[in-house]
Amino acid sequence: MGKSSLKETSFAMNMNSVHSRETVCVFGTGDFGRSLGNKMFQCGYSVVFGSRNPELSGLHPKGIEVLSYKEAAQRSDLIIIAIHREHYNFLIELAEELQGKILVDISNNLKINQYPESNAEYLAELVPGAKIVKAFNTISAWALQSGTLDASRQAFVCGDDKESKQRVMDIGRTIGLTPMDQGSLKAAKEIENYPLQLFPMWKFPLYLSAALCVFYFVYCLLREVIYPYIQEEKDNTFFLAISIPNRIFPGLALNLLALVYLPGIIAAILQLYRGTKYSRFPNWLDHWMLCRKQLGLVALAFAFLHVMYTLVIPIRHYVRWKWSSRIINQIKTNKTDPFNTTTAWLSDSYVALGILGFFLFVLLGITSLPSVSNTVNWREFRFVQSKLGYLTLILCTAHTLVFGGKRFLSPSILRWYLPSIYVLSLIIPCTVLVLKFILVMPCFDRPLTRIRQGWERNSKVSKKAQLGSGNNEV
Ligand SMILES: Cc1cc2nc3c(=O)[nH]c(=O)nc-3n(C[C@H](O)[C@H](O)[C@H](O)COP(=O)(O)OP(=O)(O)OC[C@H]3O[C@@H](n4cnc5c(N)ncnc54)[C@H](O)[C@@H]3O)c2cc1C
Ligand SMILES: NC(=O)C1=CN([C@@H]2O[C@H](COP(=O)(O)OP(=O)(O)OC[C@H]3O[C@@H](n4cnc5c(N)ncnc54)[C@H](OP(=O)(O)O)[C@@H]3O)[C@@H](O)[C@H]2O)C=CC1
Ligand code: HEM
Ligand SMILES: [Fe+3]
Predict the structure, then answer these.
(1) Domain 3-196, CATH homologous superfamily name and number
(2) What is the DSSP string of 148-201?
(3) pLDDT tens profile 92-111
């Protein structure tokens, strides 16, 4: 056996021997108590269960004892309470045995904010002499048992006593979790609400996309199907299959991409206006900032759909029929359309811009994968996400502008005074790019950079510093 692996085994033996000396007590032989207790046992801890009916509970590996709650409490100074909050009352009678011990509250509730205080704070009231740590409630018993911890490896931990928190985090690490210290016991409420939320950061992006989809669909239906049906007695209902989706998806991709960068602009304008970076953003802006990643990923998904719908354009019956009837027409009228280099240039460049924009878009998506974003430092991440992100927005906006070309301005594209949908798709991206262009001007960029480095227009500190340095710029 090689030298290094010899070292590894002795380290593991060491670790296990350290843990095998440490006894952990688990109250409750239910789903979670058993899965967590067995997992700790496998990782070298000696585990003792407390139960209402020690003699009845089977299903434990050899070497694990099941005692009454009172006896089990005396066997360890760290007790994991794998019991529903509704059944905590009996712990009051054990206050003496639990005095000074670490009690780990792992409970969840059925509803968000079900009780006025968190279960952990409730436990601290019931057993005031114990040190309470909140942990492991975001882990599922099944995942612990089956070892499929991938989704929920993160274990949020909080508590008022540092040392107790550390010991609980060590247990978390040993059983393969990634403990994240969330601070004092005050954080317990948020930690308990966490497993009850459903994709909290995805709500806004998904609701917004759904609303935009409906708007785009109705708008295109009006312009592309109903208008020709009424005005020209044409039946374009087949547009519903590809043409209309290939107006909706690119339009959403472009709009959502622009909405990823708009909050950063609003943040910058707010910081300039307030002359400080230290005042909190309004909640709606904070929440918008925090779900930009999800917005960006939804935008990328729509861009993918657009690219796929675009790839099938040449094989569509309608397109092939259009092309062939145009050729037949030219033969009949004995007139061929002269090759137009400008048109060739325009059509190739808008497609090329789309490809380049899409390439960077995918790059943004790749860098947001945790396994990738963990390998780059903050500056590199910002460079890709912010700098390349803006370049993506510029390319995709240019792609759409060139695609639209001169048709923009001609009144002929209006149908019931409604312009083509791509004109609407350009409003937010162009606004964002114009505002960004203004903000990068030195007259704005310089003060903004100073503000972001901590300078404040009305702070006494910076005034004193200025007076000290004789600089009277206020
Ligand atoms: C496909 C795709 C994937 C994406 N993945 C991610 C991702 O994984 N992670 C991610 O964060 N974004 C992601 N995004 C969103 C976007 O790329 C980043 O948020 C990017 O950093 C935004 O850059 P910005 O210049 O608009 O703003 P930022 O550079 O973020 O902010 C501009 C300025 O605003 C201020 N500011 C920013 N946030 C705050 C705040 N919360 N409180 C106070 N001040 C603040 C700072 O002073 C900052 O300098 C993704 C976008 C796409 C399209
Ligand atoms: N199941 C899971 O995946 C997860 C559960 N949790 C939390 O872990 C805790 C335990 O959950 P779980 O194991 O699923 O629940 P179970 O109902 O399966 O087990 C709870 C255990 O509590 C003990 N208990 C003590 N007093 C009572 C009482 N008066 N009535 C009923 N049971 C009592 C019982 O053990 P005994 O009979 O030995 O006394 C019982 O087996 C809960 O707070 C839950 O929110 C957190 C994350 C995930
Ligand atoms: C491989 C990349 C891409 C290719 C080949 C491509 C190609 C095309 C083509 C051929 C059209 C015209 C479709 C038609 O005639 O109906 C088009 C339109 C459009 N594209 Fe792309 N595109 C790409 C990427 C993107 C991306 C990444 C975005 C935005 C984020 C985008 C946004 C748009 C928009 C808004 C339109 C106008 C749709 C309309 O309203 O008609 N494209 N693209
Ligand atoms: Fe249960």
Answers:
(1) NAD(P)-binding Rossmann-like Domain (3.40.50.720)
(2) --STT-EEEEEES-HHHHHHHHHHHHHTT-EEEE--SGGGHHHHHHGGG-SSTT
(3) 999 999 999 999 999 999 99
- Give the environment of ion ligand 4: residues with CB less than 5 A: 31
Predicted confidence at residue 59, as pLDDT, reads 67
- Ligand 3 pocket, 351 CB below 6 A? yes
Distances (CA, A) of 443 to 194, 271, 439, 450, 458: 44, 14, 8, 12, 19
Q: Is 257 in the pocket of ligand 1 (CB under 6 A)?
A: yes
Report the b/e string of 388-418 with b at 16+ CB within 10 A: ebbebbbbbbbbbbbbbeeeeeeeeeeeeee
**Pairing, β 178-181 against β 154-159:** parallel
Q: Which residues of the chain have pLDDT under 70?
A: 1-21, 57, 59, 148-152, 460-474
Rounded-to-integer distance, Cα 275 and Cα 270, Å: 8
Taking 3-state DSSP, the helix, strand and coil percentages for the chain, each rounded to the nearest 5, stand at 65, 10, 30
Radius of gyration (C-alpha) of the chain in whole angstroms: 32
pTM to 2 decimals? 0.75
Dihedral angle over CA of 339, 340, 346, 347, nearest 10: -20
**Residue 78 near ligand 3, beta carbon < 6 Å:** no
Q: Which atom of ligand 2 is nearest to the CA of 85?
A: 43
| CB-based contact 167:140 (threshold 8 Å) | no
Structure tokens at 451: 């503000």
Query: Percent of the chain having pLDDT more than 90?
Result: 71
How many of the other CB atoms lie within 10 Å of CB of 186? 13
What is the domain partition of the chain in residue ranges? Answer: 3-196, 201-471
- The pLDDT score that the predictor gives to residue 471 is 45
CA–CA–CA angle 161, 104, 66 (5° rounding): 140
Share of the chain above pLDDT 70, in %: 90
Query: Residues 121, 152: contact at Cβ < 8 Å?
Result: no
Of 89, 85, 127, nearest to 107 by C-alpha is: 85
Q: Is the CB of 267 under 6 A from ligand 1?
A: yes
> What is the pLDDT, as a whole number, of residue 299?
97
Specify the pLDDT at position 128. Answer: 95
Q: How far is the CA of 37 from the centre of ligand 4 (A)?
A: 15
Token pair of 308, please? Answer: 């796929």
pLDDT digits (tens, 9 = 90+) for 151-191: 567 899 999 999 999 999 999 999 988 899 999 999 999 99
pLDDT of 349 reads: 95
* SS3 call for 65: strand
The answer to whether the CB of 402 falls within 8 A of the CB of 353 is yes
